[in-house]
Amino acid sequence: MAYSEKVIDHYQNPRNVGSFGASNEVKERKDIGVGIVGAPECGDVMQLQIKVGEDGVIEDAKFKCFGCGSAIASSSLATEWIKGKSVDEALKIKNTRIVEELSLPPVKIHCSVLAEDSIRTAIEDYKRKNGKLDEAEVGHAH
Amino acid sequence: MNLPIYMDNASTTRTDPRVVEAMLPYFTEIYGNSASRNHAFGWAAEAGVDRAREQAASLIGAGPKEIVWTSGSTESNNLAIKGAAQMYAKAPVGEKGRGHIITCIIEHKAVLDPCKRLERDGFDVTYLEPGSNGIVTADLVRAAMRDDTILVTIMWANNEIGTINDIRSIGAVCREHGAVFHTDATQWVGKMPTDVERDNVDLMSWSSHKIYGPGGVGALYVRRRRPRVRLQAQLDGGGHERGMRSGTLNVPGIVGFGAACEICENEMESEGERLLALRLKMENELKGLMDVVEVNGHAEQRLPHLTNISFGFVEGESLMMGIKDIACSSGSACTSASLEPSYVLKGLGLGDELAHSSLRLSLGRWSTEEEVDFAIKSIHEAVEHLRVLSPLYDLHNEGIDITKIVWQSH
Fold first, then answer.
1. pTM of model > 0.90
2. Is A33 on the interface with B (CB under 8 A)?
3. What pLDDT band is residue B341 in, cutting at 50, 70 and 90?
4. Are residues B211 and B280 located together in one domain of the fold?
5. What is d(CA B367, CA A106) in angstroms, rounded to the nearest whole number?
6. Do B302 and B217 belong to one domain?
7. Are residues B252 and B383 in the same domain?
8. How far is CA B247 from CA A137, B10, B37, B257, B263, in A?
9. So which residues of B are the catalytic ones?
10. pLDDT in tens, B265-310
11. CB B402 to CB A40 under 8 A?
12. Is B346 part of a structural domain of the chain?
């Protein structure tokens, strides 16, 4: 399968790789939201961590990804897009925009869905830690 | 050294230039139909086919009359499995209980799918599970034998992991029980010494393009004596190949296949040693450079030229993207429409995450040490790059067992 140049670029030079600390440390921090989606047996696991300021703006984002090139590129792109956005703006990012930006073929659409899910899950985690989660919103996308 | 490097010889091989040389006259000079018995063009073509039949038979310790030409291993397997089942069926078409067949869950699809079709046609099929080392033993086959077992089909060497089954002793068990024994030897013949008499084989499939011959040609060995094995033809027509496979012969292809068989017979021993040394170097160095690197399947009972390695916490397709100068294949099925990883690796009981993390590298006649060194370096760099990205590698380093986590599966 031929990859688009943008996928190859994100694969070779992934943006914002990393985390804000070990998994048990970030669990305790209220300014950080963590989203881990996918499963090893499906061949994709995405981990997105967001660091949110007092004003509700995502100051920084870090990702790690076990998955194919398209999955890596989708999560790398997601970190670029959500940085500087408020959590509510970030929730509006749809997987279809990722598909367009990276020219993903149909068989790789699930990678973009996973990236959208990781954003939503990370924001939910942040909101839950800060008592801002409206439980009715959870899982609305699916 | 030219890039990219070819390490996918279990998939197909480069046609040997000596083979091409042997074939060329049969396109433009000796172009008769080998079935034309009444003129010199036909006789010359038939002579070429007869020579190839001797070359193919010699490679496997058979007689030339025991070779049936086909279009490749898929057709050979279909003819052997369906042809034998239909010939030795215990009940008429349309009834249940037509007979029992034994095969294995990690066979090639070209064996499994004909077996599945026969199940729909009233045959009963047992699918053996080889266990984590991938080896099918005679004991496994013996335990599955029944009074109504008519056919056993077990591959000689596995195409994905290179493990070698105990064919000679499986053949002996089949002989004791009076069941016909077929083996798909596509990955074995031409690479390893084969003798259908010593090894108790009744039917055997192999293919030209896996042994440096042209594509589109294969053979089925059909035992003629002690005991004589009969088959129901699957292609009806002019009655070629003693009625077992109708269709005008592909004379240039068959001549090339014969030449490829002869070269393999002459060079097998030295080539096998050379490739074994290269493969062991590759496996040992990769294991020495990184942690959680596993060679899949039995450690010793395997083909010299093929390895299947899992690099933990790294997904196979992204790994292939990182080694774009190496042509190989992966057990990850991320490229296919389903998200299922290799059924062969899963059949060994390998966790799905390790199945997704595997590469199959298969060396061949033109593989060099320089290429192997390049591959080791490229794979090492790509795995390191991807492990920096891998959330699973972090969890592993924090001492967390990822198989114990409840994932939010998609």
1. yes
2. no
3. confident
4. no
5. 36
6. no
7. no
8. 66, 28, 15, 17, 27
9. 334
10. 999 999 999 999 999 999 999 999 999 999 999 999 999 999 999 9
11. yes
12. yes
Among partner residues A8, A40, A68, which is closest to B352 by beta-carbon distance? A40
- A37 at B interface, C-beta within 8 A: yes
Mutate to test the interface with B, among A66, A111, A112 (most CBs of B within 10 A): A66
Active site residue A111: yes
Residue B249 and residue B329 in one domain? no
Task: Write the DSSP string, B252-316.
Answer: HHHHHHHHHHHHHHHHHHHHHHHHHHHHHHHHHHHHHHSSSEEE-S-SSSB-SSEEEEEETTS-H
Same domain, B90 and B238: yes
Which of B349, B378, B400 shows the shortest CA–CA distance to A45?
A: B400
Amino acid B332: pLDDT: 65
ipTM: 0.89
Cα–Cα dist B231/B86, whole Å = 8
| Res. B192: pLDDT tops 70 | yes
8 A C-beta contact, residue A83 and residue A56: no
Per the annotation, the verdict on A42 as an active-site residue is yes
What CATH number is attached to the domain comprising B114?
Answer: 3.40.640.10
Residue A115 has pLDDT above 90, yes or no: yes
pLDDT band at B363 (very low <50, low <70, confident <90, very high): very high
Task: Report how far residue B224's alpha carbon sits from residue B230's, in angstroms, rounded to the nearest whole number.
Answer: 8
DSSP annotation of A52: E
Within an 8 Å CB–CB cutoff, is residue A139 touching chain B?
Answer: no
The total number of structural domains that make up chain B: 2
Do B127 and B163 reside in the same domain of the chain? Answer: yes
pLDDT at B339: 57
Q: Are the Cβ atoms of A43 and B322 closer than 8 angstroms?
A: no
Q: Which of A68, A114, A121 sits opposite B334 (nearest CB)?
A: A68
Q: Measure in Å the smallest separation between the Cα of A131 and chain B Cα atoms.
A: 23
Same domain, yes or no: B41 and B171:
yes
Domain that holds residue B298: 5-9+268-398
Q: What is the mean pLDDT of chain B?
A: 94
Q: Do B388 and A17 touch (CB under 8 A)?
A: yes
Q: What is the pLDDT of residues A50-77, one digit of tens each?
A: 999 999 999 999 999 999 999 999 999 9
Among the options A68, A99, A111, A114, which is catalytic?
A111
